[in-house]
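> forwarded from #structure-qc
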């Protein structure tokens, strides 16, 4: 596995600091397939380094993985938004760059926490995206004040979806998750992690478990 840092220019002039995690050449499962990971809420300190463990694990499993700092985070330019709609443009820009520069024509989008609604809104705006993984989607009442307008896009998308959540997630109850997904279009999978809280799932202790779930889902696409 090797990694390199690049700066990707967004479609509205922001520069997005990104990192590419490449599998070794003789262990690349599909050179035309890439996994783009979207970090947790910028306003609460979310950044690409939180996804480094997962991206490293995915590259070691034979998948190209890409992380990036959304606008206003770290060395990325621009300003953060409260509702994450400006950041949807960042996801689209990074996916477009990955396709044009890394010979990728199929992308799995993975969003963590607030990155899940942001990635979910981008899914159907990117032709090359063939699947979506959510880690701790904030579907609950309070979180919906900020992210409620993102829900419809991913729930209506026909693309295959995997929702991973801890049973003690403080933002979304298991019942709220099940109620939301009961009307979702297309192929939908859920995976509940017993006893895990929302912020635990963002920590390194769960990286290997997340990698295994993402790899299994990626191989099913």
């Amino acid at each position: 596995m090797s990694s390199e840092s690049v700066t990707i220019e967004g479609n509205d002039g922001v520069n997005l600091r990104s990192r590419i995690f490449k599998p070794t050449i003789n262990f690349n499962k599909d050179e035309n397939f890439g996994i783009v990971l979207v970090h947790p809420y910028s306003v609460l300190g979310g950044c690409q380094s939180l996804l480094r463990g997962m991206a490293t694990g995915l590259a070691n499993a034979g998948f190209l993985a890409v992380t990036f700092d959304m606008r206003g985070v770290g060395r990325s330019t621009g300003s953060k938004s409260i509702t994450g709609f400006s950041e949807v443009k960042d996801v689209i820009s990074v996916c477009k760059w990955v396709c044009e520069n890394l010979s990728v024509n199929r992308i799995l989008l993975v969003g963590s926490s607030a990155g899940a609604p942001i990635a979910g809104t981008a899914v159907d705006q990117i032709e090359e995206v063939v699947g979506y993984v959510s880690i701790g989607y904030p579907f609950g009442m309070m979180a919906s004040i900020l992210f409620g307008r993102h829900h419809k896009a991913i729930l209506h998308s026909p693309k295959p979806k995997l929702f991973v959540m801890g049973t003690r997630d403080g933002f979304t109850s298991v019942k709220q998750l099940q109620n939301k997904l009961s009307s979702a279009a297309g192929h939908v999978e859920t995976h509940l992690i017993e006893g895990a809280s929302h912020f635990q799932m963002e920590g390194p202790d769960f990286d290997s478990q997340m990698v295994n779930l993402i790899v299994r889902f990626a191989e099913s696409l």
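QC bot note: The first strand starts at residue 2 and ends at 9. The chain has eight helices and eight strands.
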